[in-house]
Each structure stands twice: as C-alpha cells, then as structure tokens.
Fold each of these.
Amino acid sequence: MFAAYAARIDRDQPINGLELGDRPAPEPRPGWSTVTVKAASLNHHDLWTLRGVGITEDRLPMILGCDAAGIDEEGNEVVIHSVVGQTGHGVGPHEPRSILTERHQGTFAEQVSVPTWNLLPKPAALTFEEAACLPTAWLTAYRMLFTNAGVRPGDSVLVQGAGGGVATAAIVLGKAAGMRVYATSRDEAKRKRAVELGATEAFEPGARLPHRVDAVLETVGAATWSHSIKSLRPGGTLVISGATSGDRPSHAELTRIFFLELRIVGSTMGTKDELEDLLSFCTATGIRPVIDAVLPLDRAREGFERMTAGDLFGKIVLTR
C-alpha cells in the first residue's frame, strides 16, 4: 500500500528522511481493527519523528501520521484515538503509553491498524477531513483549556502563536465556550485571521495586554515564556504543551511565579473520553477545525515543507 514514512532520521534536515512509496499492509491481529484511511492530518509530532524524537533507528521505516478518520472493517465511519497502551486494550500489560508512529505504524497510508478500543464513531455532521484534525492538535487544545487550565465561561485566556494547529484550535474552542480570548502572532495576516476566528484582540508577541488573564496556553516555548508569565493575573495558570522555539528560556521568571502563586501545568494530548467530548462539542456548537489545505497523500512532502516553514494557518490534511 502507498504510504508516507520515515526512512531515516535527520535531526537538522528532517524532511530528508521522508519517503513516499509502498509499505506492507497491516496484518490481522486479535483485538485490533484495520481502518481504511479517508483523511489524515499533519502535526509537528511528525517532524519530531523525522528528527528522531520518540523513536529510534531500529523502529524504522515508520509510517508517519497520528491522526485519521476512515472506515473500519465493518463499514463504520470512525475517528482514531492515537494514544496506544493508555488502558492496556490491545497491547501487553507492560507496554508503555505511546502515540502512533512511536511504536506502531501511523496513518499516512491507505490503511492503518489500531486497537479496536481506540475507535470512536465519526459524527455524521463532520467530514472525514474535519474529523481527522481533531485527535492530536484539537484534543491537546481541548485538554489544555478545559481540564488543565480549568477556565470557565467569562474567563480570559491568552493563546501564544496564532496559526499553529493547537493555538488555532484553542481560539475557536475558547470563543465557543464563552471566553475572552487574546492571541499573539508575529504575522499581521495571522493576527487578523485570529480575530476573525473569535479572538477578542490579537497582538504582536510581547505586547502588553489590556489586562492580565486567567490562563495562558503556551506552545511556542522559550521565545514567549517571559511574556506568558507576565501576562497572568495572581493565581493564574500557564499550560504548556509544546516548545517550538526551544525549551530553555533566558529568564525563567521564578520570582514572579512564586510571589504571584502562579500555576505551571504540563499538558500532553488527551484521553479517549476527552476526544469523545470534543466530537460532541463540535457537533453541538457547530464549530469546525480550521483547515489550511487539503492535499493528496502523494503530495505529503509539500505539506511537510509548508509546516516546517510555518507557512500555514490551521491544519494540513492528506487524503486518498
């Protein structure tokens, strides 16, 4: 079957390790289901895999892709929860939790095999392309907002780095839940788009906000860390799920953190129950994932290049 896969690890030029071509189709396995992939979306996790983060050479070649929606062996339209080993379903009792592409082949292929427990019904209101955007970036944003930041309708939230998949999702979700959402971006067009999606205002990175916020959602890392800390009200919460600009800020702001009793919470992905809630939330509110582009799988390299350059707003989806 045709697939986009990591053939080698290149930490400096990750796309050099990307190959497109035939790979073995999944073999039947007790407790697992084979899904015919209709749509799959790119994540920065796929670039990290090509850099060798979360994977070792001995597991290559590895089909890339965490997210997908498709049709299972019984003809059901499904969405894949990409965390394998979370509850022990379909894997051995000692296998650690992992995301597709770390231990198990991913979704950038004609078919993918996952534990049957990992399948959720795709709501009829969502297209395959829309549903394929939810299991990683949108689920991460959902958990950051509603589980780890603990914000409520009427609260204020700063989202750093508008344009990325998680940040874009957080803006849309926060607006739909009745929050005042502020956003930052270096790009004027992305700031304008953030406001169109529901942000109250959008600012250049480091700009002073109208007031301190209840929570900051941080995916940028070192470049915005100090601004994130300074933007919080006393007792506020910073939730971090990524560090695309690096993980070593020049100023940790420790004095401000302890003096104002700020909370710093790490956040990774989300649970199957949270994904189910997210699917229901999208159906009930009418919100939909922001899609930058839909490309055929054989143009996956183009999608990776756009993601590497940051030349996108929302998700890139691959289809067959």
Amino acid sequence: MSASGGTRAIVAALGANLAIAVSKFVAFAFSGSSSMLAEGVHSLADSGNQFLLLIGGKKAQREATPQHPFGYGRERYIYAFLVSIVLFSVGGMFAIYEGYEKINHPHQVEHWYWPVGVLLFAIIAEGFSFRTAIKESNELRGKLSWSQFIRRAKAPELPVVLLEDFGALIGLVLALLGVGLALLTGDGVWDGIGTVCIGVLLVLIALVLAAETKSLLLGEAAGVEEVKKIEAAIVDGDTVTGIIHMRTLHLGPEELLVAAKIAVQHDDTAAEVAKAINAAEARIRTAVPIARVIYLEPDIYSEAEAAKGPNPEATPGGPNPHPADH
C-alpha cells in the first residue's frame, strides 16, 4: 500500500470532517439536537484521527538509529491504534452518554431546518471522502473482498479511513432518522435513540480497528503471495537446493524482514555458499521489493534430522512442514 495513496485519502477525509464538524456544531447551537452534538463530536474526533495518521506517517519516515536498528515503520501502526482508542472513547462513548441523557430528559428539536440541512450537506461531503478512499483502495485491493482487504492490509491508513467514512455515513443516516422521527412525532426521545445508535456504531468500528491494528503491532508475516515469491526466489536448484524453514515479519507497511535457513550442498566451498546467498538476496529483492532486511543461514539438509519431528526449532536440519504458513 503506497503512502501517497493513503495520504490522499487522509487529506480528503480531514478536509471533509473539519467542514462537517463546524456545520454540525452550528446546527446543534440553533436546534438543540443531541444527534447533531454527537455527530459534531464524531466529526471532530475523526479530524483528530486524521491528524494522528498524518503524524504517524511522518514519524515513520525517520532513519534507523543504533537504538532502533530496524527503523520506525511501526509508528504508523501505533498511531492507527491510537485512532481506534479516540474513536471508542471520544466518539462512541460520548455519543452513548449524550443519547442516554436525551432519552431521560427529552426536549423537542427546534429550528428543524438547521439539522436537516447540515445532515444533507454532511452526507454529500462524507460521500466525497468515502469515494476518494474507495478509489485509492481499489488500486491496491485487487481481487480481495472489502473485508479481506481490511483484514490483510499491512498499511493501516486506508482501512482506517474506509471504516471511519463508512461509519460516518451510516451515523448520518441514523441521525437523520432520529431527527426526522423526533419532528414527526414531537417526541425528542427519538433524537436520543438515534444518538445512542450512533455511539454503538462507533464503538463497534473502534473495536474492529483496534483488533486489526493490534495484530499489526504484534507483527504480521508477509502475505501468502509474497511468501511464495520469496520461496521461489531463494532456491536456485544448484547451490541452494531448498528451504529448511523460513520466517517473515513486517517491520512496517513497506518494509519486510526475511529470515531463512537454506539447504546447500555438503561439498560447496564457503566462497560458493557466500556467492549463492548474495545472489539469493538479490533475487528476493527483485521479486519482493519491500524485502529490505534479509538473513539467510546455510545448513546441510539432513534426512535423519528431518525424521526426528516436524518442529523446525527442535530439528534444525528438518524442513518446514507448512512452507506457506508463516
């Protein structure tokens, strides 16, 4: 996932949310609608989230240091996780609290044209932002479904923006329903119910984001297709005859660590092995350009060691029983 694509989607979402937040707070001031207040806080939280994503992207570009020899690529994961926390606490929990208060102490929505007009404007603006995020994501999604794309994406920005914009559009519809029912029935409780529904929606989205970014923070392996390309690039059939076992790890969205124990011929010289390793590293980087940190350890494949068991840590000379499962 390119950083430029993610940045375009973030900037589009930021501009839309700032404009929408201002309009919602104005509508709340004139109408007293709790749905408008909850939606205003939601848009303000979303704007803060986009700032967090931009900061994370900037910090991740720092050069590696002796203290952090693998760089700062995971900064993007950390800030994406913070986004889920902000969305849960500031957006979701505030909306649920505000809705609960409005249900217990309802009052009629005043100057109905303010919230309705602002909600219609917000739907258009959020739709533009959502369209931009979809367009940028389609360039990278390939044949994956949307749920698969969100689960498997190694760069967090586009999935975060997609879920935020999707949640915002659904929330706006809920707010419009709440305000509309409050106007039709004259009962402000409907406005509070709409607000609670918005809060529950935001909490659910925040939990999904937290689960996905937590997985990235813990460290995810390369995708299945990338693993296959790396395995094919390592073996040359001459000096490197096979892969005993291999591990991959994303150091950041666009930086991959590859560590493998490779099988070489027992009568190869050290110079031949070193030359083969250098050639294998070059092939890996050609096949998967984001594989920037590569460690290849030569070993002699042993049928006797392999027969001791399937655990490659317990039997260092044995093969990985699931070569595509890393």
Amino acid sequence: MSLTPVARSHVTTAHQDLHSEQGALRGEHPGRSRNPVIKVADLAWLEFEKPDLDRAEVFARDFGFGVAARTQGELWLRGTFAGSPCMVIRRGHTSRFIGPAFRAAERADLDRLARATGSAVRDADVPGGGQVVDLLDPSGFPVRVVWCGEELPALPEQRPLTLNFGIEHRRTNVTQRPPREPSRIQRLGHVVLETPVFVRALNWYLDMLGMIVSDFLFLDGQRERGPTMAFLRCDRGSVAVDHHTLAMHLGPGTGYVHSAYQVTDLDAIAAGGEYLNERGYKRSWGIGRHIQGSQLFDYWRDPDRFMLEHFADGDLFSCDVEPGWAPMSAGGLAQWGPPATRDFLGTDPSPARLREVVQALRGDNELDPARLLALLKAMTS
C-alpha cells in the first residue's frame, strides 16, 4: 500500500498541533499583561495545613522530599537543589491547601507590590529568613510573594542512569540496576488550581505577578467564549523556564488540584513508584508523557488525599514563545500512557462535588449550564 504525503496529512495523531501550530485567533486573549506590577521569578513553596505532622513526614520521605526544618507546629520540606523549601505543612484542625508562595526576582519587587496593593512587607517565617508580601487572588487563595534571605544548600543528587541508544553505546560490561528507593525530589515544579472565576484569576496573575501563558485550552464548540484552562510560566526574558509554574482551569470548585515535583529521569519515576506502591499508597494516574509541557508524569495520593506528581523532562520556554491553543479533553492530556483515571479527572460524583456544582451554578462566576455540560463532556472524551 502506498502512503503518499497527501494521505499522511489526513492522519491525526496526538503529536499534531501540539503547540503554536494552532495559535490565537484575532481578538483572543493575548496571554500576557502589557504592564505587570512585577515579574515573579519562580514558585517558591506551597502551604498546607494537616492535623498529623508525623504521618505527613512519613509520606514526604517516602515520596522523596528531604526535611529542611521540623518543629511542633511546622514541617518544612525541600528538594536536593539549592534554593527555598518546596512545601510547608502547618499543624491544623483539618487537612487543607492554603496557597502558593512565589519568589520575587529582586527585593525591590516586594516594595513595588506593596505600594500597588496597599499591602505591607513583613518578615517571613521561613528557614534562613526573608521577607514577604501577602495578597489574595480573585479565587480567594492567599498568595505570598517572598524574598528569601538565605538559600538552602544543595544535597546529593540521584544520578541519572547511563543509557545505550541504538549504535551509541555509552555503557558496556556493566548492568543496569536502578535501586528501588524513593524518587529523590529535586525541586517544586508547578501547582494546578481549580476556580469558577477563571478569567478574573488568570488576568490577576498576569497583571500582578507578570506571568505569561504557554498554552490555552478551550471547550469544544465554545472557543468564542474564551479559554477554560491556562498553563502559565514565569517571564524571565531570554532565560528559558518551565512550560508552566501555575496552571488553572474553570470548574465548580475553588481549590487545589495537584502539585508537581521534578525528579532525575524515567527510572527514578518508575522505581520510586514501585517503592510507593509497596508501601500501600494509591497511584492516581501514570506513568505517561503529557502533551502541554511534554513532561513524563506519575500521580499519587498522599494519606490526606492530596494529589502529587513526580515529573521529569519538561519543556522550557523563553518569553518569545506565544500561547498555543487546543481543545480541552481527557484524551488530549497525554501523548502516551494509560487512559486518564476518574480519580485524576475528578469525575466521581461525590456529595461534596455535587454541592460545589449547585453552589457554582447559583453564584456570580463564569460557570453556567452550557459550560458545565461541555466540561463534563471534555472530561469523558
């Protein structure tokens, strides 16, 4: 059978139109602010509350975090890279996500942000010291912008395996035996949030923190109504950074979806996943490779049902890459891997989820019956 270039052009695969081949149409959201107040440099850490810090520490070590500091009321977790901690868990009555903290590019950014918002610059309670400005985004998440006075030193790395490729033989007379141990976390990569005021929240992060959009997703048949998910990166000019540091999507709830932590390579993901499985933790989805961001992924639930991701080999974009546009669908989340699970997609009809839907449809937000039905269709297609 002859397969001509014409015939090939009609074959649609997960690898077509992955990014800028499908760009913005005239008048669509530009994906960046013309004059942001500041431009944050990175995501610093995430803040949680949990009643049982001992149990939280056991999972953290099994997942691959190091402990930067521990008191009666706080647990600071870190990766192997030098810099700020990845996460702080404070003792609280219930398990809940508080909000993200972003790293300012320079100390003067805190003053600019404080003047623009009427906030105050105060000392930050973080290992090594620092200063912080506390904000509130349109979804109601507390957002901190921090300047850390002292970086945590680097820790020993989990070395990548030496691989053979075709006729390129880098490893001879040596076997391959990746140890079955925790995937050693290198750093915090991104956080994903759900909000019923998606466009308001999106514009706030662009205008206030100077983030820019790498990719937009829209609902099938509703592109004219604008995007319903955005993958945002930091704007560091010509320096290439993670495809997304923050991702947000429209939904009936206001809350944390998952956070992602970089590890060395695919073997670290897989061997670390076996280690977690042997200890009775629940995999939510994986292993696979995403489309937006391209990273290898593996998602797990901690004992408090928070979802965390191991990832490796993600895309890096500089400021001159324009946003891509693609339809939102469960099948469009990965290039390869098992189908996205109901647990990952959040499509299990729990009583709490149904209450969120009813409240959202009655509230002042961007969700209406047509959008809700299209979101449900997207998550099952």
Amino acid sequence: MQELHDAPLAPLTTFRLGGPAARLITATTDAEVVAAVREADDAGTPLLLIGGGSNLVIGDKGFAGTALRIATKGFSLDGTRLELAAGEVWTDAVARTVEAGLAGIECLAGIPGSAGATPIQNVGAYGQEVSSTITEVIAYDRIARETVTLTNAECAFSYRHSRFKAEPDRHVVLRVRFELEDARGLSAPVKYAETARALGVEPGDRVALGDARETVLKLRAGKGMVLDPEDHDTWSAGSFFTNPILADEAFAAFHARVKERLGADAVPPAYPAGEGHTKTSAAWLIDKSGFTKGYGTGPARISTKHTLALTNRGGATTEDLLALAREVVAGVHDAFGITLVNEPVTVNASL
C-alpha cells in the first residue's frame, strides 16, 4: 500500500475541489482494502473511502483522518456473468462488455467513477440501472468484521439509493457481480425516449450494442457529462440533484404551482414512480426557476450544457460550489415548493 501524509484530495475528485487528507492510503488488492479499514476502525480513526471521486464533494478544510483510495483491478467474464473489482474504471468496463457482445449496461457508458460505487448509488441513466443486472455484491462488513456476499434483494435497491447508502459506515464494496444478456450483438430493449429518438427507433426496440453505447456517449457529451480535462463543463459530479419523487397530493400541489407561475397550459414533466407517486425533472425545475445553462458569475457555475451539472470553472472553492447549490435549492423551493436533494456525497461540507 502507498501511504502519503497531508495529501491533496482535490485531484482525486472530478470537481477538483477540497482540502487535503491527514493521511492517504492507496490499496490495490482486496486484502489491502480490508487491512486498511480494520486498522482505521481499530484505532478509531475517521475513514473516507474514495473510488473514482465522481460523486464526492470534499470541504475546503479537507479530511482529518485516513482517506482510503480503492484502486483494485479485476475484470472477469464467465459466459454472461461479469465480476468487477471495486476499483475498476466503470466506463472502461462497460466498453469491454459491449465488445464482448453482452447487453445490460451499455446505456451506462460514459458515467465517471469506479465499479464499486455503482451499487451504492444504484447508478442509472438512459433507461438502465445497475440494480437490474447486479446479482451479488461482495463487501467487507465493518460491524461483523468479515467479508460478506449480499444478494440483489439484500442490497435494497431503489431510485439512486441502496442499503450501502442507507448505512454508509457499514459496508466497503470489494467486488460486484452482474448477470448480462447475450442478445446476439443487440442491446437490451431501449427504454429511454431520448435515446430511442437519437437512434431512430421506438422505445422497446433493440439496436446494435455499439450503436447504443456510442449514442449514449454522444448524448452525455452534449450535456457535458463525459469527463474532459480541457472542458470545465465536465468538472462536475454529473447530475448534482436527484429527480424529485412526489406523492399524489404533493404532485397535485406542485402542478397547481406550475400553472400559477407559468400559465394555465404549462405541464411539468411527469413519470410513473410506483403506486401513488410521480417523478418530475430536477433539470426542468432548475431551468423554470430562472437558473439557466451557464448561470453564475463566479468560479462555480451551472454548466453551459446542462442545468443539472454544477461546475468548477477553475479556481473555485468548495464553498463557492455550495453557495451556488444553496441558491438553486432556495430558488426552486420558492418557485415550486419542492426541495431538491443533492446527489453527491458531502464530506466536511453541507448545503
């Protein structure tokens, strides 16, 4: 294991923000990960886990404990069964499954971060979620002090949520297992309307795997959602806020606010989200509240390509970013009565 002290953490995040860690350990094997976690737990030292850093907002004062960077490697295919080490680069793993002719995660191409983070957030985009293909998660249980294997059901997946997110200090993901589909070079049925339009097909159709992946990458790049060191519009955590899910009564009140603010003919985005619930669009809410693409005058601004992405234009601090996020949250609440929830994890920082 590599060990550094007073180590910068900003370069390990896609925001490129945050102060240093008192101690930074880089682990390249599962055994090293477990050993580092046990050592910190035994000593009572605060522990911060870092994968790809794409869903992380670290405070300007940094982290006064041990930061553990999980850099394990491992990509294994057995028929349609895929196993990934937690430190594998997610978008590279997706590309390899497409090359192997296997469907199920092709529309998750271009999502930054590591494989181990995907079950925590139940990563999803363009009609796919990892919960649809994950069969098991191998993790170190910090309470039981042993490595455990959790089934899909035991992971308690829901929209951008899981058991791991609900109990953030309990499990350290080591490996993730998936069951993909051999559809003879075709994708899973295309579910997302935007993707279907871009591909020139109807929702439910299948297309060539490579076409599905390339189309999603182009859509993401057009929204600044594919990492590019030269493009500050990608210095972000992707979508900063989750799409609100409202109970029927709350959605009716929201609908009334929309008509009052935008006119009798205004109709907000609405998607089924389980019995008695409707999901609406955080990006739509932000835009209609007056926070358009490129909003802001300081070093932290809304992306010029997508209203859901808050970006570091270079030279920003974490507090600059959080001030912008707070402004957006307050504005949306004032306009529509909905409180947006941040998607990235905050460390020594809060909205």
